[in-house]
Design a protein that fits this description.
By secondary structure, the chain is an alpha/beta fold. It is built from 15 helices and 15 strands.
Length: 384
C-alpha cells in the first residue's frame, strides 16, 4: 500500500556502492535515482559510509562498512538489521530495491520481508564467473545457490539483457525481467575529441591510439588486450596503447609495458575526452552482465571490438559499427583487432560514426520509465 493516497511514492534503494566510487553499478544506480527523483519519487539511499564522508542524515541511511578485499576504495555494508527495522519503521518505503547481494543487502531483504514491504532486486555482477579468476572455482556452486536464494525472495530480478535473463532462468531464478541501460549522449560524444590530449599521449598525428577503459583486474581478461595490441604494434609500430582505470593488475601491466600510457581512473568530461580522443576500443572481458564502457565508447565515436555477448551483442553490428569475436575465442579476438587496426583511418572513422548514430535511441529516460513500471508492479499486489 502506498504510504498515503496523496504522498509521493517512496523508494528505498539498498546498495553497497555509490559515486564517487567508479564502477558500472554505481553509475547505473545514480542514473536510476536521478530519473526516479525527476518523476517525483522520494528516494532514500541505504549504503555504507564512504571513506572521509560525514554522516549528516541527508543522504538516507548510511551504515558502517568494511573494505572489500581486492577492490580498493569499495566497501561492503554491515548487516545492521536493527537499524533498518527502526529506520523503515519511521520512514516506511512503498518498495525496497536491493541492488547488491552483500551482507547489507541480505539484512535489507530480511527486514523488508518481515515488515511486508514489497521487494525488487537487480543482478549486476556475474560473481559465479569471477570465482575462477580469484582461484575460487570450487565456490561456484555455493555462490550460485546463494544468489538464487537471494533473488527468488524478491518480486522480480532486473537484468540488463536477454542472455542474462535466459541464463538465470536456466539456473532456477524466478521472475527475471529485463531492464536495459542508457547512455548520456551529452557527455559521450565525438565532439569531445581533443588533439592536445593525443599529443600528451605522444600519439603522432596519423598514428593509432588504442584504448581500454575499465577496472584493471583478473576478471577483465586483460592478457587478451595485451596480446592484441602487441600484434597491432608489429604492423603499426607508432601505435599507442592507452589504459584508463585502476585496479590490482595495474602495477603488473605497468611494469611489463612501460611504453604504454596509463591514465588512471577518469570520470565525467575528462573520461569522455579520453574516449573520443582514441581511434579504437578493445574490450576483452568475459564476465560482464552488460558492460557500460562498450556503449560509452560507441557513443564517443569509437569502433569497438568485444566478445559477442552482453552490451556488445545488443548494439554492435559486426563489420558495420564495430566488431564481434566469438565468445571466448582469444585467437579470433586478436585476429579481428589486427584487422580493425589495419583499416584505413577513413573506414574506421565511418565505423565510429555508425557506432555513435546507432545508440541515438539508447537513453536513460526510457530505462527509468521501465524501472518505474517494475516498481509499481511490485507495489500493486499489496494495495487495497
Amino acid at each position: 500500500m502506498l504510504s498515503s493516497a496523496c504522498a509521493r511514492p517512496r523508494l528505498a534503494l539498498v546498495t553497497e556502492t555509490w559515486p564517487p566510487e567508479i564502477n558500472g553499478v554505481a553509475m547505473t544506480l545514480s542514473n536510476l535515482v536521478a530519473g526516479m527523483r525527476s518523476r517525483d519519487w522520494q528516494v532514500d539511499l541505504v549504503r555504507p559510509v564512504q571513506q572521509g564522508e560525514s554522516v549528516d542524515g541527508s543522504a538516507g541511511l548510511l551504515v558502517p562498512g568494511l573494505p572489500i578485499p581486492g577492490y580498493q576504495g569499495l566497501r561492503f555494508g554491515l548487516p545492521v538489521a536493527g537499524r533498518l527495522q527502526r529506520y523503515w519503521g519511521g520512514n516506511r518505503p512503498d518498495v525496497v530495491h536491493v541492488a547488491t547481494e552483500g551482507p547489507l543487502g541480505w539484512a535489507a531483504l530480511r527486514v523488508a520481508s518481515a515488515l511486508r514491504i514489497p521487494l525488487t532486486s537487480s543482478f549486476h555482477t556475474n560473481f559465479h564467473r569471477y570465482c575462477k579468476h580469484y582461484r575460487l572455482a570450487w565456490l561456484r556452486g555455493a555462490v550460485t545457490r546463494h544468489l538464487r536464494l537471494f533473488h527468488n525472495r524478491t518480486a522480480c530480478t532486473m537484468v540488463p539483457n536477454l542472455s542474462t535473463r535466459d541464463y538465470l532462468q536456466q539456473e532456477g531464478y524466478r521472475n527475471v525481467v529485463i531492464l536495459g541501460r542508457g547512455v548520456d549522449h551529452q557527455l559521450y560524444a565525438r565532439s569531445r575529441r581533443d588533439p592536445s590530449l593525443r599529443r600528451a599521449w605522444q600519439v603522432e598525428e596519423d598514428a593509432l591510439a588504442v584504448l581500454h577503459v575499465g577496472r584493471m583486474a583478473p576478471e577483465k581478461n586483460l592478457d587478451t588486450v595485451l596480446e592484441a595490441f602487441a600484434r597491432i604494434q608489429t604492423r603499426h609500430p607508432s601505435a599507442r596503447m592507452v589504459w584508463v582505470g585502476d585496479g590490482p593488475e595495474l602495477a603488473k601491466i605497468r611494469r611489463a609495458c612501460p611504453h604504454h600510457v596509463f591514465a588512471g581512473a577518469r570520470v565525467g568530461e575528462d573520461l569522455a575526452r579520453h574516449y573520443a580522443s582514441a581511434d579504437l576500443f578493445l574490450f576483452s572481458s568475459l564476465t560482464e552482465t552488460y558492460g557500460n564502457v562498450v556503449v560509452e565508447a560507441m557513443a564517443s565515436g569509437l569502433p569497438v571490438l568485444a566478445y559477442d555477448y552482453a552490451a556488445a551483442a545488443i548494439h554492435i553490428r559486426n563489420g558495420e559499427n564495430g566488431m564481434l569475436a566469438p565468445f571466448g575465442d582469444r585467437a579470433g579476438f586478436v585476429r579481428l583487432a589486427l584487422a580493425l587496426s589495419s583499416m584505413s583511418p577513413s573506414v574506421r572513422r565511418q565505423m565510429g560514426i555508425a557506432a555513435s548514430d546507432s545508440l541515438a535511441a539508447s537513453r536513460w529516460e526510457e530505462v527509468c520509465d521501465q524501472f518505474e513500471r517494475y516498481l509499481n508492479d511490485a507495489i500493486r499486489p499489496v494495495e487495497f
